[in-house]
Each structure stands twice: as C-alpha cells, then as structure tokens.
Amino acid sequence: MDRIALVISDVDGTLVTTQKRVTERTRAAVAALHARGIRFTVVSSRPPFGLRMLVEALGITTPVAAFNGGAIASPALQILEQRRIAPDVAREIVAFLEAKRVGVWLFTGEEWLTRDLGGAHVSHETITVQQRPRVVESFDGLLDQAGKIVGVSNDFARLEAIEGEARAHFATRVTAVRSQPYYLDFVAPGVDKGLAVRELTPMIGVELSEVVTLGDMENDVPMFRQAGFSIAMGNASDAVKQQAQETTLTNDEDGFAAAVERFILPRAGA
Fold it and tell me: pTM here?
C-alpha cells in the first residue's frame, strides 16, 4: 500500500493480553503510530463503556466502534450511531438461547443486563468491560433497547454448533457470530466489523486503501476485507490467518506491538 493513515485493531485476543492488560510495549507502539501521523482506533464486540480503559490508556482521539460495529461512539464514549435488534427478533433470540440451555446477556448502549449474577463468565466479563451487570428477573420491557444479545457457554464446540443453527434459523433478520469461543453475539442485520470500518473511515477522513486492520477471530475477517492491509494474530485460527496478508505473534507475546514494529512502521516511511 502507498500510504498508511489509520490502524484499526480488534481488542480482545488482539490488543490486550489474556489478562485484559494493555502492555507498555503496546502503549509505545500506538504512540509510535501517532508520532508518524497515523491515526489509531478500535473495533470491538465490547459495549461502548467497555472501551473506556483503552481510550484512556492509548490516547485514542477518533471515534470507536462497539457491538461488532453496531454502535459508533465518540472518544468520550457518547453514542453517535447505534443499530438495535428489532424487539420481536430480540425476544425470539432470547427464547432460542434459552431452549439451547446457554446463558443469555443483553446489552444496551449504557448497560449490561443478566438474569444470573453467578452465571458463566460474568466475573470474567466484569473485569473485561470494567462495569458490573444489572441483574433483572426478565428482559421484558428491555428488548427494544438491545444493541447486542450474547449466548454464553463454556462448551465451545456446542456453542459453535449453535452458531450454525442460529444463522440458519434467523437468516437475514440478525447477524450471529462468535466474538470469543465462549460468546455467541447477536447484533442487528447487516452489522459486522466491515461495516464499522466503512463508517469510521469517512468520519476520520481517510480512504479504505489507507487502512491497516488487526484481529484474531472470524468476526474480524469482514474488516480484513475492507482494509488495504490486514494482519492476523498468532492466536488466530488457520482459517482466519488465511484471510489476512500477514501473521504476527500471539496477544500474550505482544503480537500487536510486534505487528506495528515489523509490518506497519516500515511501510509508513519517515
């Protein structure tokens, strides 16, 4: 590519370690991008409020994307655009996941809602997004606010099978994709990280051909396809790696920083 103007990174499994930390080497890599005049932002399955620690730690000054592209927020995390799941479809998703006997979470733009505070991955997600969920007896009356619904299970193979069933069942009425082996995300139809890239670039004032993207999961592949250059993490599956132009180290080996140092800064010139 002739010019790099923007780097867009996935968050979990890419930008942060397994312990959800931003390393000093990652901070230095983003600072090096900024020093070259290259903008930096994130596209994540997290809710907008779950990106606060990254905006603060990395000095992000551009809009960010949450809910796999379903919400665009300012650096102050004010929601600029949000696509919600239709209430009748949201109700059907909850019933579908209940029938599969997996945990169900509902995210609005401002809140994370659960019916079981002791359920799988609740404590893990609390650390990740740095906000506790609100416990509700029912999602009734809240379904019209759903930006994302998540099916949660520690049975990774079973959740993968449920993902396939969900795509067949809901077809074009919703987008269903795993953001982690243990999370199956449901967002509004047409929403994916590729859409987020297409919406962020004109806001930031760059061309798609000037964008580099980094990620580790299948839900990151749509943004690979929009960018001028894409990099898969070392912890990504072989299928995801095949969709990127380069592969870096794992997220626990400072793979993001290594990618900036090896693949991005040398292409950026002086």
Answer: 0.94
